[in-house]
Amino acid sequence: MQSFTPTPESIPPANVKYTLQLPEGVPVHVQPLNPLAFVLRAAQIYPKKLALSHPDVPYPVYYNYDVWTQRIQNLAYALIEAGIRPGDRVALIAPNSPVIAEAHHGVLAARAVICPINTRLTVPEVDYILEHSGAKFIIVDHEYAKLTQNAKVPVLVSNDTGRVGCPYEAFLSSGRRFSQEKGWAGLQWESNEDSAAALCYTSGTTGRPKGVITTLRGSYLAAIANAYETRMDLNSVYLWILPMFHACGWTYPWAITVAFAGQITLRTVSNNLIWNHLLNSGVTHYCAAPTVQIGLMSSPEARVVPRKVTTIIAGSAPTAQLLGDLEKKGIKAVHVYGLTETYGPSTTCYVQPTWAKLPLDERARLLARQGFSFLTAGSARVVYPPKDGEPDNVELVDVPKDGKTVGEIVMRGNIAMKEYFKDPEATRKAFRGGHFNTGDLAVMHPDGYIAIQDRSKDIIISGGENASSVAIEQELASHPDILEVSVVARPHPKWGERPMAFVILKTQAAPRWKGRHDAFAAELKKHARSRLPGFACPEWVSVVDELPKTSTGKIQKVALRKIVAKL
Amino acid sequence: MQSFTPTPESIPPANVKYTLQLPEGVPVHVQPLNPLAFVLRAAQIYPKKLALSHPDVPYPVYYNYDVWTQRIQNLAYALIEAGIRPGDRVALIAPNSPVIAEAHHGVLAARAVICPINTRLTVPEVDYILEHSGAKFIIVDHEYAKLTQNAKVPVLVSNDTGRVGCPYEAFLSSGRRFSQEKGWAGLQWESNEDSAAALCYTSGTTGRPKGVITTLRGSYLAAIANAYETRMDLNSVYLWILPMFHACGWTYPWAITVAFAGQITLRTVSNNLIWNHLLNSGVTHYCAAPTVQIGLMSSPEARVVPRKVTTIIAGSAPTAQLLGDLEKKGIKAVHVYGLTETYGPSTTCYVQPTWAKLPLDERARLLARQGFSFLTAGSARVVYPPKDGEPDNVELVDVPKDGKTVGEIVMRGNIAMKEYFKDPEATRKAFRGGHFNTGDLAVMHPDGYIAIQDRSKDIIISGGENASSVAIEQELASHPDILEVSVVARPHPKWGERPMAFVILKTQAAPRWKGRHDAFAAELKKHARSRLPGFACPEWVSVVDELPKTSTGKIQKVALRKIVAKL
User: What homologous superfamily does CATH list for B463-566?
Assistant: First the structure.
């Protein structure tokens, strides 16, 4: 660890107490749930434990829990001093770095609502979100400052130095002075646990992004579930690969503190930085989408990890190839599923002891399923989607547990969003049948496991048969030369639609097929025919250098469909 | 495992669904917290996993999660058929056995309140509790049927056979018939998470026992904390030594199901049965007071356990001797603290990584402290106790973190009781200063750890100095010949009071001191003088064969004081 001295205002007083003011009228036996509780516990119990490292930057910083929690308090006071009132939204535009990690606690300590914005958006997109969210204050990382060029509210810039001279640091220091050293007791605990914790915008491929309101109660319970289901503890170190701006980092900014674990923030997702930390920094946990994981596993730095590492996979189902690669590196996969509307993960594919004996391919097929609601989530069901014209309170009917009948995944309970912000009509539609309607199509297997098939637009209607692009991708990915694959529908004069596969070859296989992509296409089709029904075999195969992806690593089928439309 | 066939009505239908009716008006994003959720999850995800074994009886039984959960449903329907309505109390008098484990879920599924009664009470004591609780229905184990001889409400007897012919089994079977196979959907989920889950009576050494009301929300959150803090998971097996009737078994009946773990019920606490299970049944977790643990460690069956075992210790602080003995056997101790009013455990002595290097004696001194509030508990503080005449809403003031100033432990939050049943005056007193006043005296160490000194009546005022009987016991217990020791005040003409020690010798040491107890007393006093200030050294030492204990293994100092009073 390099030498680093936090700003003087980051050092807590000797007599610090970690108890906030509780409003009158809260009964002795109730503490309104709030994920802020966790970092306060960590600072109280393990003050000198390393909470956050931000190493791979010109100005690295390292905060112990006591110092880091003081900074969180400073941020809360500074926001209040800047005029932020309970319920106000504070926008955050930053890559994974201390400022956004701190905001997940400090904004809540000011009883305000965190509104993280994707750093990869355009200025007009950011303008829309700033306008729609009504954010009163913006904190932006210097690299993304231009995104706030049209902002009509105060903008605070973080230079990501953690040192005197950075405007963000000056802001925190002003908070400490404003606190008059009343400490935590000068701040009030939010009495209503149903208050908003965050306002996260969906990346909505069609139309305007929607603002998802999550609550303090839900964030508290989701964070506990994520810590428990992934077995994080005092000795855990979480590596930030998933952007924190994505659904509040799936509540991991809080889950990490549930466990008193450490965290490492990386501004940029680069395979060699990640492997350096996996091999040398004691990392035990990270979250990432399969595409990111595939890149990691095929990176030249890849080695067997020196301790048990658990990776949380979501975004799409892991393939057998990927699960096998992870296993070979000593990395245990926990497959989870969820959406921004469900605080990120809310189901997990619980592993049955009997699966251990199965061959990898079969095990992977079982593990690729979305499974069951996790610890604190409510129910997740697969139902016949409500039809147009049916009342909003229609009684939803489960599809049979046959592994075949396709329905829609619906969820309800403490890990479902409260509403779409300022959009009662979208909320009403999303909550038909008293559940959150995910829009994800799935089957229910006889063993009760939910397995996603496709979003309805991802189904390929080939010769009157419904072909699942997800299932086709799973089978094509088993070809030894394929690194990554995505399948979409392409119009076909005879069959209506037929699957088209876009393929990235593995580095070592690419030279062999150079100039012979037709031969590869023929081989892949042959491979497909041995594993898939005729209507599901790709009619076209396009070898590409990269696939269009969202900021969270999901393949953008919309972009592929645009390519197909021009063919 | 012996062959056993559950009653036909215990077998769930093929199409079982684990979702209860949710009342109108519960928002999509809220599921009222209720620990019943956990066993339903377990049955859904791991239906064929062994949930409960009851092996050491003439009629052993073994239930998988699917079967066990059906029995829970049957119990709920049978109770409703018997006239039990939401909020009614159902009394339970049973040793650790399936009936009481089932009741912790089945009574809640009927939206009723479980009222477990200590099997070691007398008939008049049971009469008082039945009267005070207003229990509408009693379930009693055949061995304790005589305790209900004066009952004025229906009494259902369990013969603990799990087989046709037992009245309890007939009752469950009637529930299944009454359900009309509507299954879980025919039962309603309690919409108010602040509703009572349990009514547990304190063992109150003075005056009438008080009835502690705990809530569904508190039980849910306490169960999660107990599972998380003790790292229970799918592979865990919990051995029942702590009686389930004591504070609902510290919420472990639910915590076990959080983890999808197995449990083994033992009717009787016997060292050889316990060691048999520790060595041969895959046990990973058990709770027990230090006195029980001391007996276990000194038992001739004691061996090194063949896998990692975690023991949860509470009731009083473990001594260095005991911690050392546990370590030698491969058993990891988690020291927790709480009262019936805090759902059993609500603080734990979190271990600091730096302690690992310390010698056992020093480590034990640190581990013997009560520590910090655990995961879902609110705040635990040490404050100057409110004085008589101060208003109920007096602002409590923390004692300094000096490890010396004695104050009272107070707690508040989701793991504190709701009230004393039908006793607003006792509730008011217990809740002075907006916290539950435990009556336990403690200091706050500079590192923030709470350490119990004594209940105020356990303080020995010797020559004007306050001597802590707990601290004296800790030091005396380090003598190599002592198995167990308890210290109380005895009047002294010159010093006001002086400590008197009651000592049980180790089996191997007893013969050596036979007929020479005076010599042992002299040696122990010498041992004490090397470790304690003069006013804290015992003036008298009495070697005894056993110490008077409560049903939960706590030494009854009241009984020792009675002996002293007659000297």
Answer: ANL, C-terminal domain (3.30.300.30)
* Assembly ipTM: 0.90
Length of chain B (residues): 567
User: What pLDDT digit, counting tens, does each position of B531-545 carry?
Assistant: 888 888 999 999 999
Q: B19 and A413: CB-CB below 8 Å?
A: no
CA distance A25 to chain B (A): 10
Shortest distance between the Cα of A131 and any Cα of chain B, in A, equals: 26
**pTM for this predicted structure:** 0.90
| From B44, B227, B435, residue closest to A372, measured CB to CB | B44
To the nearest whole Å, the CA of B203 is away from the closest chain A CA by 21
Per-residue pLDDT tens over the stretch B172-214: 999 999 999 999 999 999 999 999 999 999 976 556 899 999 9
pLDDT band at A358 (very low <50, low <70, confident <90, very high): very high
**Which amino acid belongs to residue A277?**
H
Q: Quick: pLDDT tens for B1-30.
A: 557 999 999 999 999 999 999 999 999 999
Fold of B32-268: Rossmann fold (3.40.50)
Q: Is B297 helix (H, G, I), strand (E, B) or coil?
A: helix
**Closest to B397 measured CA to CA, from B372, B433, B438:** B433
Pair B28, A412: CB distance under 8 Å: yes
SS (HEC) of A50-97: EEEEECCCCCCEEEEHHHHHHHHHHHHHHHHHCCCCCCCEEEEECCCC
Start-to-end CA distance of chain A, whole Å, equals 54
B/e letters for A369-393, b = 16+ CB within 10 Å, e = fewer, are bbbbbbbbbbbbbbbebbeeeeeee
* H or E element, residue B364: helix B360-367
Chain A contacts of B46, Cβ < 8 Å?
350, 352
Across residues B502-515, what is the average pLDDT?
92
Give the nearest partner residue to A435 out of B28, B194, B218, using CB atoms: B28
Distance CA A40, CA B375 (A): 11
Residue B466 has pLDDT above 70, yes or no: yes
Please say whether the structural domain B292-455 has been given the CATH code 3.40.50.12780. yes
- Say whether domain A467-566 belongs to CATH 1.20.1080.10: no
- DSSP code, position B21: B
